[in-house]
Amino acid sequence: MILSWWMALVLFAAPGLWALTAIVVDSVNPGQMLGADAGETLVRHFGEWGLRMLLVTLSLSSLRRRAGFAGAVRLRRLAGLTAFTYLTLHGLSYLWFLAGFEWSQVQEDLIERTYITVGFAAWLILAVLAVTSTRGWQRRLRQRWQTLHTLIYLAIPLGVLHLLWLTKAGYAEALVYGAVFAILMLERLVARRSRRPAS
Amino acid sequence: MRSRLPTVPLRSRISSSAIAPSEITNEQWVLNRREFAKATGIALLAGALPSASQAALQPDDEVTPEGIVTQYNNFYEFGMDKSDPAENAHTLTTEPWTVEVAGEAARIGKFSIEDVLKGLTIEERIYRFRCVEAWSMVVPWQGVSLRKVLERFEPTGNAKFVEFTTLKRPREMPGQRASFSSIDWPYVEGLRMDEAMHPLSIMVTGLFGKPLPKQNGAPWRLMVPWKYGFKSGKSIVRIRFMEKPPRTTWNLLAPNEYGFYANVNPAVAHPRWSQASERRLPSSLLSPNRRPTLPFNGYAAEVADLYSGMDLRRYF
Hints:
Order of helices and strands of chain B: HHHHHHEEHEEHEEHEEEEHEEH
Radius of gyration of chain B: 19 Å
Strand content of chain B: 15-25%
Largest sheet of chain A: none
Shape of chain A: globular
Structural class of chain B: alpha+beta
Number of helices of chain A: 9
Distance between the termini of chain A: 39 Å
Oligomer: heterodimer
Largest interface: A-B, 32 and 32 residues
Number of strands of chain A: 0
C-alpha cells in the first residue's frame, strides 16, 4: 500500500519534474525544451496537467468500484493536491510570464476575459478543497466535508470551459476532457442507482 | 541613394546586442540570399525600396532567428500546434502552382506563378510581424510589391476589395482532414483595395534569402505588416477583385473577435488577449521580452492615412 502511494507520487510528479528540467535546460540554452515562447509553453503545460490530474482524481473512485483497486481511494488526496499544485503553478506562470505582474492587465483579464474569470473561479474552489483536505478539517466539518468536496464536480467543468473558451479553433482537446468527465459522471450515476435498494 | 536593405545598420546593431551572432546566422543568410538571387536570375536592385519600410524599423528590432521563424508557425492547414507546420508541410506540392484570378478585373483566368512574377523585382523587407495571440517577430522577407502583382490583372474601377484564398488540398494538408476543426476550408482573407495597393504590402516569395519554406506559405504568401498575422494568407491560389467586402475566415468564425480590418491596435483588446503588449520571440523565462504594442504595429506614419476619419474601435 505504502509502495503504491510512493509509486503514484513519482508518477504524478513527473510533469512537474519535466517542467523543472525544462526550466534548468532553458536557462542554459534558451528555447531548447520550452520553445520560442517559453512562458506560454509553461502556462499550457501546467494548465493541461492540472486538468488531467483533476480527472485522475475523479477516476480513482471509479477505479475502486470497477476494477476493485481498493488502494485507489487513498490516492485521491495526493492526486487532488497534485492537480492543485499544477494549477497554482499555471496561475503563477501566467502572472509572471504572460502578464509580467502588471496588475492593471491582470485586473482587466479577470474582468473582461471570461475564460480567465472562469479559470480563476475554478482555482478558488480548488484552493478551498486543498486547504480542507487534511484529516483535521475532515473531522471538524464531519458530514459537511463530503458536501463541500462535491465542489470538484463544479471545478472540473469550469476548467474544461476555460480551455474551450481560450481555444481559437479545433476543439478536439477540450472535447476529449469533457467526454472523460462525462463518462466518470455517468459511472457515478450508475453506481448510485445500483446501490439504491429495489423497491 | 539608399542601400537596398536596412541589413547593414541592423547587423551592426545585432552584433552589439546580447544575442550571439551564431544564433542569428546572419552572414549565412546574406550569402544564401546572393546565391538565391543568382540561381533565380533575379537581380536585387538597389533603390527599389520605398523608404517607409526602412524608416519604420525600431532601434531595438532584432531579426528573429531563422530557426524560430521557420519552426514556430500558425498554419492550421498543417495542424494546430506551432510545431505542426514545420513537421507536416513537406507533403505539400508547390510545383506547378497556378493562381486563379477572378472578379472585377480585365485579365481574369488561370496563371502560372512564374508568369505572374516574371519581370517583377524581388525586394527584401524586414518587417515586424505581430500575431493576434500577442507574440511577435522581426522577419526578413523577400518578395514583390503586391501592387505590381495586382496591376498585372488590370482591376476595374469596380474593384474596391481583393480577396485571397489559400490552397485547399486535404490530401496534402492534414489540418484540413482533422475533425472538430471549426474552420470552414479554404482559408480566405481580404483587403480593401487601397490597403492592398499600399507600398508596404508585399507578396512574399522568400525568407532569409532562401525560397519561402512550405510551413511559411510557399510558394507565395501575403505580408501586410500593420495588420495581425492572420490577415496575411499563405499559399495563395485565388485572387478575386470584388465590389463588396469579402467574407473572411476568422471574421465569419467569430465576428466579435476578428474584425475585417484587424489592424494592430493596442487600444482595442481581443476577447482573449489584451493587445496592449506583446512578447517578442524568442521569449525566454529569464527575458520574456515583453514590450508595448505600437499602433499599426509601428507603421502608423505610413498607413494611418488609409483610415482617417474611421472609428478604429468600431472597425477593428
